[in-house]
Specification:
Order of helices and strands: HHEEHEEEEEEEEEEEEHEEHHH
CATH architecture of the largest domain: Sandwich
Shape: elongated
Number of helices: 7
Strand content: 25-35%
CATH class of the largest domain: Mainly Beta
Distance between the termini: 56 Å
CATH topology of the largest domain: Immunoglobulin-like
Helix content: 25-40%
Radius of gyration: 30 Å
Length: about 350
């Protein structure tokens, strides 16, 4: 036995879903239907239906056709009726577009922003290195369409082939770093940091450099983990990371010479001390690691933690609202003038 309340609930739910689908469809196709309606009438007058005549009961008055409705003939009576029907469809289209815009603003207010994911990590795609050779892997961020203020780069590698030696923040666009971790037992590197508002906005930027050392001959894959993120500077910690990069490096069986090994130790010593050499002079490195208490006052760590909590909880609703925001973004972007220039 089905309870009346449950039946009513599903009826209301079905009505809401049907209305939502209709509004979004009319927001996209309503304008074309309004323009095509008179053209269709010119070629197929008997197969064109008046909205009022089709929707109202037999015998009611149709203000467009100015007659009593007869279900045997629901075609528009005159050209005035055709224009009135086209205008009504156009009005519904504009109202639907307004409803989609309002929906997008509500999603924006509750944190489900219409910020497209455009950012990608870029690392050298390939390379050949000898046993014991220390080589840098720069982490470049590209596709930045709006300011970003926090980044977490999580990287995995085969610890039997490679050894993580150091993570350098020299030349990084960030100036606050809250975590730098190397785990050579499991093959994991993490660099987390950012900068205060207004954030960083450029075509691309170096976030950090990881120094690896070849341990055993063979091909090794280095890749970013799904836990990586790039947060937009919009006050809500929107993750704008679009894709995760990977690279394959070949470790040759040839070993570096003792002289080269000592040179590498000197270079890495300067990097670890936070200094770099330029034209024979030592300069203080650009970046400094802050104590956790100082980072908390800036808000960068709070943004990272907020994004993590959002990612770990309510996965279904995150997916649903993210899909909804993508639909709204598609509809609204379709009616932007630049969309017609493509």
């Amino acid at each position: 036995m089905v309870l009346p309340g449950i039946t009513l609930f599903f009826q209301i739910l079905s009505f809401i879903l049907a209305t939502w689908v209709l509004i979004h469809l009319v927001a996209i196709f309503g304008f074309f239907i309004a323009v095509g309606y008179p053209i269709w009438f010119l070629f197929f007058p008997k197969k064109t239906h008046c909205v009022f005549c089709a929707g109202k009961p037999e015998g009611d008055w149709c203000p467009f056709c100015r007659r009593r409705i007869a279900k045997s003939n629901i075609a528009p009576k005159s050209f005035f009726s055709v224009c009135a029907n086209a205008f009504l469809v156009l009005l519904f289209s504009l109202l639907s577009l307004g409803a989609v815009f309002l929906e997008s603003r509500v999603l924006l207010y509750f944190g489900f922003t219409l910020v497209p994911k455009t950012v990608s990590f870029v690392i050298p795609a390939k390379g050949q290195y000898r046993l014991g050779e220390i080589f840098p892997m720069k982490i470049d961020i590209v596709g930045i369409k709006r300011p970003i203020n926090a980044v977490q780069a999580d990287i995995s590698f085969n610890p039997n082939r490679l050894e993580g030696v150091e993570v350098s923040t020299t030349d990084s666009f960030a100036n606050i770093f809250i975590q730098k971790e190397i785990n050579n037992e499991v093959g994991f590197v993490r660099l987390t940091g950012g900068l205060p508002s207004p954030g960083f906005f450029a075509d691309h930027g170096i976030f950090g450099t990881i120094y690896f050392k070849g341990k055993s001959p063979g091909v090794v894959k280095v890749e970013f983990l799904p836990s990586s993120m790039v947060l937009a500077n919009n006050g809500r910690g929107t993750n704008v990371l679009k894709s995760l990069s990977s690279a394959s490096y070949l470790i040759l069986p040839e070993k570096v010479s003792p002289t080269e090994e000592k040179q590498q130790e000197v270079i890495m010593g300067a990097i670890i001390l936070g200094k770099k050499t330029k034209e024979g002079e030592e300069e203080q490195a650009q970046m400094t690691f802050f104590e956790e208490s100082r980072v908390l006052s800036d808000g960068t760590e709070a943004e990272i933690e907020k994004a993590k909590e959002k990612k770990e909880s309510f996965a279904f609703w995150d997916f649903a609202f993210d899909l909804l925001s993508k639909i709204d973004r598609f509809i609204l972007s379709w009616w932007q003038p630049k969309a017609w220039k493509k």
